[in-house]
DNA sequence: ATGTAGACTTCGGTCGACC
DNA sequence: AGGTCGACCGAAGTCTACA
């Protein structure tokens, strides 16, 4: 693996910056030279200051340093998430098997995450196992969630509803909202956590409908529309529009609902294979169910 | 500012992980303890390994450590970008003024970026100044671009076309493509640089049309469609659809073009105030120009 | 499983000078 | 502007042991 200093050297040269500009008053001139040669490591807090001067993020530095590859953790997560998106559950099982005795600590974490994905897929047959229990409990108990938790919590919703009842969803929702708020700045939503919140509301809506708690479902619209669309990207805005569309089918203007949904599915239809096939399945299912409900 | 170790301690506790799990064979047990107390800094490469075990990115760690705020560099960039998005050019000028004698090295970089934004707005009156020349030259000479450059290069297109002629756009395009390729992994596009590439092609299309180089413009469609939409997010896919729509107005199926554009603008119309007002302006302008061209 | 403390070593980091 | 060398210091980091 290339030393951090060498990577920084390359970037600095390409950017046409001098050592003085980049290292300023952070480290001495002679150390800067030895550091860029790869002879020394550097203190983390100093590195962060240097990265600011280089106008590069810590994540990108790592990515470049590792020969333009995501971190091992990212790689593991992306592999699992990709299998999940493709509904390839055997591949997830296999991944867990292969990494069950990994020397890397983060593989245990990813295994937990992967187990939850399997759990979400078919919690009746798999149930909460010893692998999934720690992270299942953690997600319920921890006050502070990081991006990883925010990404995962929405697949936990149906599981919580089944095992602890619908009432357990209220505190979960509150924590989700509170934690997403932590990641809002006056410049917007740098980590795009609001997209996860939209998806969370979507899963919540589906769950309430599945359990026939129509009153709770009805109250969700105001929460979904309350999200300022200017702080979302188009991924979030389309999800927002989709779930409002579904809501309208049940509780609002049937025509408007179909308009909203048409606009979203029209975009999907432009892409082969589909970006997200589940949208069509959900719409079909909900259209039928909404008709029944309205009678 | 809270010490890095203290932040990591909080995150570790919240995640319910033991020191052994997180620090493994990276540092000794006793050092881990002192580090989390904030008594010591830590080597950068060791920190990265620890972050993997914590399942958190370096960027997020920094964000949390700084009390849930982006890095100073990010803050500066976001401020300028926001002003640009709002077409608030006086605010950008003012920002450059206020930070022209900043002690922070990165403020010079952001000033360069901001100057280019102004340049892109009205290069006839402002011209290439001493502030903008370094970065203007840099973007043309550097082989390696980081995310920052990839974000900025598309606003440079019209400037390059005016000052160096349309032929200069070919090598620029090649470098743009090559650099975006660096950021593609087998798991997709982790930094979403392909969105920048779509926007680049859009600017390119506009520029060719403005300069009446219809042959070059006609060849752009294959490049835009060549981008696999599955590696884009919806921001990118919508931009892709929009620019293909514009292309169709000139060189392809007029009806199809309007269909594509209608789908995109229909989404825009759902949001007040508009997410991106320029879409409507561009469409209006191009519809007229395309009619003329077709005659 | 973690905090503390002392003794100890390594290496991150400075300074000055020379090229 | 930046690479290098030697001398030097303090902080990073280990080990052992006790709590």
Please explain how this structure is put together:
Two copies of one chain form a homodimer. Chain A is an all-alpha fold. The first copy, chain A, has a domain at 4-66: 434 Repressor (Amino-terminal Domain), CATH 1.10.260.40. Helices cover 72% and strands 0% of the residues of chain A. In chain A, helix 8 (105-121) crosses helix 10 (133-141), helix 11 (147-164) packs antiparallel against helix 12 (169-182) and helix 13 runs parallel beside helix 16 (234-251). Chain A is elongated. Chain A starts with a helix and ends with a helix. The mean pLDDT of chain A is 91. The interface between A and B is large, with 82 and 82 residues. Chains A, B: One of its GO terms (molecular function) is DNA binding. Chains A, B: It holds the Pfam family HTH_3.
């Amino acid at each position: 693996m290339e030393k951090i200093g060498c990577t920084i050297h390359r970037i600095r040269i390409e950017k046409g910056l001098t050592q003085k500009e980049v290292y300023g008053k952070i480290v001495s001139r002679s150390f800067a030279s030895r550091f860029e040669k790869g002879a020394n490591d550097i203190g983390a807090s100093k590195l962060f200051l240097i990265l600011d001067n280089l106008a590069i993020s810590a994540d990108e530095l790592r990515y470049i340093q590792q020969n333009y590859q995501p971190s091992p953790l990212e790689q593991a997560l992306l592999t699992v998430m990709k299998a999940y998106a493709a509904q390839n559950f055997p591949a997830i099982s296999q991944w867990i098997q292969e990494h069950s005795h990994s020397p890397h600590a983060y593989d245990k974490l990813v295994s937990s995450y992967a187990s939850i994905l399997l759990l979400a897929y078919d919690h009746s047959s798999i149930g909460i196992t010893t692998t999934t229990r720690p992270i299942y409990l953690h997600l319920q108990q921890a006050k502070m969630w990081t991006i990883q938790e925010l990404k995962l919590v929405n697949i936990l919703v149906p599981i919580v509803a089944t095992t602890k009842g619908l009432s357990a969803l209220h505190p979960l929702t509150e924590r989700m909202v509170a934690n997403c708020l932590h990641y809002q700045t006056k410049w917007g939503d740098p980590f795009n956590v609001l997209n996860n919140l939209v998806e969370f509301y979507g899963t919540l809506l589906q769950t309430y409908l599945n359990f026939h708690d129509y009153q709770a479902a009805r109250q969700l619209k105001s929460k979904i529309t309350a999200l300022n669309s200017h702080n979302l990207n188009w991924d979030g805005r389309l999800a927002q529009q989709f779930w409002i569309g579904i809501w309208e089918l049940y509780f609002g203007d049937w025509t408007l609902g179909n308009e909203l949904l048409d606009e979203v599915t029209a975009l999907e239809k432009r892409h082969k294979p589909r970006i997200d096939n589940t949208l069509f399945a959900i719409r079909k299912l909900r259209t039928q169910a909404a008709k029944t409900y309205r009678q």
